[in-house]
Structure formats: structure tokens, C-alpha cells
Amino acid sequence: MASHYFGGNARERSHRTSHARTLGKGIACTLLLSLALAGYVLPSFTASNTTASSRNHGGRRSRALRTGPSMMAAAIDMPPTGYDTQRKILKVVKWPHAALRRKNEEVTVFDEKLHMLAVNLFDTLRKEGGGVGLAAPQVGVNMRVMAYFEVKGEKAVGKLLVNPRIVKRGEDTDVDMEECLSFPGVKGPVVRPTWVEVEAQTIDGKVRNFRIEGNEARLFQHEYDHLDGVVFIDHLDKATLDKNLLKLQNLKNEYMNRGGMDPMP
Asked: What predicted TM-score, i.e. pTM, was given to this entire model?
């Protein structure tokens, strides 16, 4: 998720531009020891356990999930190589890349490859500049993994969630402008619940339950949507989509000009 328009509510907007500067506590892992010594640390999983009642939030437009690249897919449509075996900056795929709609598989093996994917997600997110969140399908990796920065003043705490699941959504909602790294230049108002209760696994497979509120809840829901094959333009009304029509058409043209053969709906 891009950070340029993030924060606020329907009654009282507060647009904040946040730049991720630092990461949170590191993870003890032999594979990443050299990274830690070099000053790069993976975030710890931090959350609060709070209970609240809620009804499920509905009304979101659904899209059919793709199950994988076709046999005739062009190179641009294929998953990246080395994303979990070597440290590298991954390319953020842009709409209408099919990876944004494919089914994302749950993680069942918590090993060194998952750690390397986590490192690459955060490296890529930092490289992108204005972004504060990134889901694995946005780099062409169709797994239920997401990373984001919880910005607190001048600091940014990195959080990595594996196989997250929304348990409850708040009944109260607010609206704010959103952008996305997979939709450069496109923006619009999105209505979301003000809080969610979540169950997720840490990078080493431990299950955690927690509640998040406010701006972090919006950020989490934006990235969580990606794991279900939903993108933020699915939430926009027709008037807003019409305003962004030229930008969307340009993105589609760029995809096709690069040899893309499997555009998503």
C-alpha cells in the first residue's frame, strides 16, 4: 500500500505522509545472523489481545480467483525466480498482472526460505519509498504472507504476518483515501471497519491473536485484501473509477506492451 493518502476518518480527515525509517526488534535466526550484524533486522511480531463483539463486514465486490499462470503465459506473467533462496529486490507487479487475482496458498513450511522471502519483502518495501505495506502476491508470489510498517511518529515498526485471518470486524466504519504500489497514480476513497480482530502466524509458525485499530487497521485490511485476490479499486464507486480510467488504461497498455498475455479482470 502506498502511504501518500493514509489516515483520518469520514468526519475529520487527517492526511499523513509517513516514511519508514527504522525497523523493529530482530528475529533470532541463524540464516539471518549476518543480516543482523550488518544492521538489517526483521521485525518481531507484536500485538495486543483485546476482545470485542462485532458483526461480519459485507458488501465488498468479489472477484473470481485465478488458480495459476496459464501454460502459454509470457515471462512477465510468471512468478519471480530466487525470491526465497537469495537476497534480492523483487519487482512489484502492476495491474492488470494476473498474480493480483490468483489464489494465494497458505504457508505450511516455516523454514529458511520463508525467512528469505520476509527479508526480500521488507527490502523491496524500503526500496519503493512511499510504500508502507506489501503483500506477497504484489511481487508475483502467491502465498498468504504480508509485510507492513506500523508508523509511530518518527519510527516505523515492521510487521510480518503469515496466514492471517480476520476473526471479527468492527461495525463502525470510516472512509479515507487509499493508494497502492500495484496501481501507481491511482487513488480513491475506501470505506473500511475501524478495527479488526486477527489470528495469524509468526515467521516461525506460532499462532497469535490480536486486535488492531485506526490507521493500522486500514493498512492491514488493504494488504489482507491482496491475499484474497481483492484490490483496492474493487472498493471504489463508479465516479471515482471514471476519474482514474485513463490511468488504468495506461497501466493496461504498459502491461500489454511488455508482453503480458494474461491480464486480470
From this structure: 0.75
pLDDT (tens digit per residue) in 44-85 = 333 333 333 333 444 444 444 545 544 445 788 888 999 999
The residues annotated with a catalytic role in the active site are 223
Question: Distance between CA atoms of 125 and 148, rounded to whole angstroms?
Answer: 8
Q: Is the pLDDT of residue 237 over 60?
A: yes
Phi, psi of 225 (to 5 degrees): -55, -40
User: How many residues are there in the chain?
Assistant: 265
Distance (Å, rounded) from C-alpha 31 to C-alpha 34?
Answer: 7
162, 2, 18: which is closest to 92 by C-alpha?
2
